[in-house]
Write a structure and sequence with these properties.
The complex is a heterodimer of chains A (375) and B (524). Chain A is mainly alpha-helical. Chain A is built from 15 helices and 4 strands. Chain A has a two-stranded antiparallel ribbon. Chain B folds into 2 domains: 8-251, P-loop containing nucleotide triphosphate hydrolases (Rossmann fold, 3-Layer(aba) Sandwich); 269-361 and 433-523, Rossmann fold. Chain B is built from 18 helices and 22 strands. In chain B, β4 (71-76) and β5 (79-80) form a beta hairpin. Classes of the chains: A mainly alpha (375), B alpha/beta (524).
Chain lengths: 375, 524
Amino acid sequence: MTATTVDQATAINDNRRRRLNQVLVEGRALIALAIIIVIFASLSPNFLAPENLIIMTRQVAFNAIVATGMLLTILHGGIDLSVGSTLGLTGVIAGTLLEGWQVPLTQLTAFPSVWVVIVAALSIAALVGWINGVAIARLNVAPFIATLGMLFMARGMALVISDGRTFTQLRGSPELGNTGFLTVAGGRLLNIPIPVYVMIAVAIAVSILLNRTPYGRWLYAIGGNARAAELSGVPTKKVIIRAYVLSGICAGLVGLLLTADLVAATPRAGQLYELNAIAAVVIGGAALSGGRGTVRGTLIGAFVIGFLVTGLVLVGVSVFWQQVITGAVIVLAVALDQAQQRFVGRERTARSAKEPPDRRGDGPQDDKEVATTAS
Amino acid sequence: MSALPVDKGVAEANGVVLRAIGVEKSYGAVRALKGVDFEIRRGKVTVLFGENGAGKSTLMKILAGIERASAGRLELDGELYDPESTTDAVSRGISIIHQELNLCTNLSVRDNIFVGREIRRRGGAIDYPAENEIARRVMTQLEEDIDPDTKVADLRLGQQQLVEIARALSMDTRILIMDEPTSALSATEAEVLFRVIRELTDRGVAIVYISHHLEEAIAIADHAVVLRDGDVVAVKPAADIDFNWVVTQMVGSEQAAEYAREGIGVGDRVLSIQDLEVPVGDGSGRRVVDRFSVDVHAGEVVCLYGLMGAGRTELLETIAGRGEVVGGRILLGDVDITHLSIPQRLKLGVGLVPEDRQQDGLVPVLSIGSNLSLSSLLALLRRRLISRPRERDEIESEIEDLGIKTSGREMPISSLSGGNQQKVVIGKVLMTRPKVLLLDEPSRGIDVGAKAEIFNLIFRKAAEGYAVLYATSEVSEALAASHRLIVMSKGRFVTEFDAATTTREDVMRASGESLTAAAPGGNS
């Protein structure tokens, strides 16, 4: 009897420890975020000041929106390296239109209203994404290559259109009826910056898209097994093209928001944004091989990076060290993620062992799966 | 389990090369092997029988150094044998041919045969001429005229399987483990393999053989070992065993290999293939499906029998919408679907259960439920979103209808046995409410019990009015589980049989197999 009780006690302890491990590993991005907040809050009294939080969150929003679009492309097993350039191009388009667009072959200068500017700029961003998607899905160009090419092309176009200059006359004028861009994209509502609302809206929309629509299920299916998805009747090409269109639109949104934020549209805006976005997605637990990743994780990933960088600035760590530390955090996050995959696999195996006896002979059949998770 | 000191002399006298004593293996809380004792003898074929999950593959992986036992010991020639890796095992003369192909398809046949143990010249460069010579010799032994420089990706599945076998043959192997080596081979190719096995045993090589194809395994066996639930339940010399004994030992009760051929007789013509031509993908102008015609009616199960390379898979995939058509047409009812996309065909009622479950059937990142509903999401919408209650109901009813044994629809697909995974793939297609159900090798890689379940299911669906067309390379299956049997060879229609009144000899002759390939004839 005593032996049994001891056994039971150990079993309960085991269970408790396992559950704790699970919480630690699954919530690791959130825990990392908590640690970052605690550390910087104690090092710098300003870190948690409301205004600083608001400013940091606005900065995070830029990356988070781009990263949410990036997530869609990563889910199918691809990547979108062109987002930073798309962002810059969108800003330049908006700047051109707001300062007055010289209609080709005429002497006319058009001053479209702010809503037309926004729709036009986002359409260009969507077009850039569509070209990426078509190159990838229909012309079978590897996502890395197709979007790398677009990284140069979109940036180049931004420089061509702007002739390298920065647009600063974005206020518009009442006579022309094109005022309000800076308020719509760069203002605040209830003291919260507009980008934060956009981030929340994009996150909710993409969450619903991924979790509640056939499109989302198809995207995961393609990332998990493209051949099976295709044979199951998933319109794989359309799904993939749409992922890049949406990624382009997300980048375009940030192009507009950033332009309003800086009160300037520069063709060089958004450089290296693609890398920050990828880092956010990956820290958020997505697999670059596709099929795994969530919006929630991506948002947390963006917050981890954003708070880390701002925190390091606040406590006075040199810019050079900031990069070293950010890089280390990214690698650490992915290493932890791999540990989690093994852990979850082991849990799974353990669980299926406890199935009732009438399921005899129906244990995990996929020996390979068991092998990888057990090793 | 005995801890008897092993007398090396005695062991050798019995011809025992390798002895497993109380071998156990646990994965977490799963006990895949519960203390297995067994012996492998020099120059003999030891066949391991057992259903999926019985522990055969696990045991073989331990022998081959892929996994390590949790308890117990292995003795090779009476000495402790505890391989740390496959390289370690190979250096002791033990190699394995896997059930799943383990080839780098981007490399050539030669490179695959020698990968990891390349022959070097002085200075470290690979000695290609030497490798080529050995590769050619081994392929000749297997009666396959394949240039060692051919890329593996360009070979048929059966030939790829032979490359895998060639790799094992090219090593100095004392114990060769073959896990389902014939699953992708035609009868003729399998026959060659059996001859090679005999040559090897004559040279003193010990063979451990695993196959779901019981008749074939019984025919090749010298010793039979039956595993059930991680235990060895029976060991007998081959002379004392027959089909029924093996099945009884494996499942614990006798099981009839005959199916109730339900069906509603011949209903309306549902699918009509007319002079269909599908080109070989290499632009050579050859046809992999060559002016093939067949009609399938509601309520009947039509079996497409043919050897490897007969074009069965290509035919079914073309009907489902993958692949290019250069001639002929496909009618569903009166609708010409020849040039429609896969989603369009699914919507009209053509669903395919592909041959390779893992590669083409399942999405591992999705749950059992999401795999089931993957093809029918558009029918489950409410205000443009997937209706969760409707999706759940549909999934649950499919799980119940097909008898998928799972602890929940949210479980990962890998938690299922092969047979139940296959049911998920079939369920996914059935959920689209197709008119025609196409199945490519529906019993591939699943055990006897699950096989019977799958075929009973197929007949039940036929009785419900589905038109069923499935492909197989097993004659006994083709005869036992169909109403009509179409023989296909080299992409062409050869002949048609009434499955109830035909003999296996008729079928094999029609398909171009030599009758000697019917090795396990004694049991049929």
